[in-house]
Amino acid sequence: MYAQMVKSTGQGVKDPSEMTDQERAFQERIDRGDRIEPKDWMPEHYRKTLIRQIGQHAHSEIVGQLPEGNWITRAPTLERKAILLAKVQDEAGHGLYLYCAAETLGVSRDQLTEDLLSGKMKYSSIFNYPTLNWADMGAVGWLVDGAAIMNQVPLQRTSYGPYARAMVRICKEESFHQRQGYDIMMKMAKGTPAQKNMAQDALNRTWFPALMMFGPSDAESVHSAQSMAWKIKMNSNDELRQKFVNETVPQAEFLGLTVPDPDCKWNEEKGGYDFSEPDWSEFFDVIKGNGPCNTERLAARNKAWDDGKWVRDGLMAHAEKKEARRVAAE
Length: 330
Ligand code: BYC
Hints:
Shape: globular
Bound molecules: benzoyl coenzyme A
């Protein structure tokens, strides 16, 4: 099992013969399919990897509100506005479940927030692209939430209990998000020629950035081998990307739209689509902070944090007064 994972990802994991007894016992628990809970012993690297992944995931949910929040005031109908508002609020909730899961690993939410705001921690590359018109709300829901589901459904079985449990509820909500996006695409693709063009244009711009969401190719993925050995990740980046393409291309065909990749063709032998790799130099540039909206996104989050200071201070003052009254009454 081990050897197979190392081979498939091309990166090394600690050999069982080099592990301490405690590390070996931990790995055996993982291999048996045990859930690891906050008070259980865990290797420091396991804890840090989880904080990195869950923290990035939480930040993605929070920053992910910005591209869609941009269109709430301009939704074409009251019904679309109510749906989009509910979806964006769901993303805030996902962020909160995930920050809570990360806190069980001994990092505070304030620390995680500070690391996001200073640019030290990452969030998903996809949210550094702009949403230019209403069709993008369809493409984001369909493709971005669709890619998120593909990645997150297996994470319901991840080895760390609080992360796996947070993922159950998140996945239910993501499924509604994906359907609302596809519903917008259906309306536009079956609408006027101008609306259909907008839908095609949104697909053209979102396709490759959505493929990048799964992370670099397995050969370039530095964390996959260890994360898969620990069942923090259940599948490799390339496996999930392939599954996503296999599911999404027929959905595009149903809409009468074309994925922007002339090399995307069914391959009978492998039982999946062949497709072109995204431009990985663009991906690495975006995650280094040089995407079209990185500066804008971080500025928006920093402003929200600064503007919200009086609320946090008020809540703290209220909590302190309440606690003082409770102590005085004892
Ligand atoms: N964006 O060794 P690798 C959502 C980084 S959806 C930015 O393969 P790993 C939402 C990676 O962090 C999105 N950075 O890493 C949807 C590492 O850098 P560091 C959130 C990326 O961790 C709709 C380096 O590249 N979902 O929330 O094994 C609406 C090497 O990569 C990306 C999750 O976070 C990327 N796309 O695998 C609202 C799911 N890809 O950290 C919200 C959970 C890679 O060494 N996360 N990098 O500096 C995961 O499954 C994994 O963390 C990843 C990356 C597949 C993303």
